[in-house]
Every structure is written in structure tokens, then in C-alpha cells.
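Morning run. Coffee first, then this:
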Amino acid sequence: MQKLKQIYEGKAKKLYETDDQDLLIQEFKDDATAFDATKRGTIVNKGVINNKLSETIFGLLEKKGIPTHFVKRLNDRDMLVKRVEIVPLEVTMRNIVAGGMAKLLGLEEGIILKRPVLEWHYKEDKLHDPLINDDHALALGIATEKELEAIRKYSVKINEVLTKFFDSKGLTLVDFKLEFGRYKGKIILADEISPDTCRLWDKTTKEKLDKDRFRRDLGNVEEAYQEVLRRVMA
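And here it is:
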């Protein structure tokens, strides 16, 4: 499968057409951004790591009944995926207070939530992906009731599966972001699952092993990503 015309470039990935109109090649980049791309940098081999991690995790989720856009990993940086229409609604699943939730509610990072929290965010960089509710999504035509129901069901299930999976690898899944797309009339999981999109802490030491090391200038960013890959693949 060869790359043809590039049709998209985002902060962390590029998308290319293929000779099959239903399939795209997703290329993972080493570029790193934070704070709505006001902070930029490079994490060496991040694209290679995130591609391998996403392959493994998408495979796990498929086995658990979660439909995804993943078809197969082509090489170190490229993944063959189904061509979806992205729903402009980012889901954040939270198990522990951190990041935006800590800032929004004035809470201390690290508080374990009594139950997981699902947040809808309208995907619009210019507006900083604002927090919205079901009524906003329905009134603005972002998604239908049936689509919201499917996205919520899948998100909750993904959180259950990944919390157990990462726990078995000595990692705490603090929170993570998901994107979904429409494919042949159905909702499926898209994008990636990696330390770019998940907050992962060492279960014992609470050491951050994710993109927060880049956001907060904590150092050892490449080593953190490599450690997550080592544990997941072990």
C-alpha cells in the first residue's frame, strides 16, 4: 500500500490517500505541541513509539468489542486505517483529577474520583476545545442522540479495559482523550492511544510517564515514552 496525496496534517500526524478510497495511511510524527500549539518541540522517535503502542492497544480494544479505524501497522511510522469522517467532539475520560479538571474546578491534582468522569469537548483549536454538554452537541448538530449514546458507551468500556490493562503493566491511567469517526454509517474509534493522549503515572512512585513531561519541562521525555512502550510490550 503506497502513500498518494497528503490530505491532512495535524499536530502529531499526517494522513495520505491510498489506491483504496476507503483506506488511508496515518503517519506518526515526532513533533510535540502543548497549550494549543503555543509550545512546540520534538520528542525523538515519538512517532515510532506511538505507532507501535496504538497498534497494540487498538488490537486489544477490537478483541473487547470496540470497533476502531485500525487495519494494520505498515512500518515504524505508518499505519493503515479506515477513512472516517471525524466527529468534532473530543471525549475526555477522567479517573483522577489532573490537567484541565484541576484548573477548571480549583482541585488538587491526584484526587481519585469516586467514579469516572466523561467530558465532551467541541473540537475547535481557535476556541481551545471548549467543554460542552449533550444539549450543545445536539442543538449544534455535532452529533445525533444515537451517536452520542454509542460514543459514551464505547468510551466507558474503553476506560474499563485500559484501566485494567495499564494497571497490569504497573501504570495508573489518570485520564485520556478519544476521538471517534463515522464509517459506513457507524461510529468507530479513531486517532491514536499513546502517551500523547493519555496521562500515565507509575503505579508505585506516581512518576509521570506521558506528555506532561514535555508540557511541564520535567525532562526525560523520550525515556518516559520508551518506558511506556517497554512495559506495554513486555
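The two ends are 29 Å apart (CA to CA). Good start to the day.
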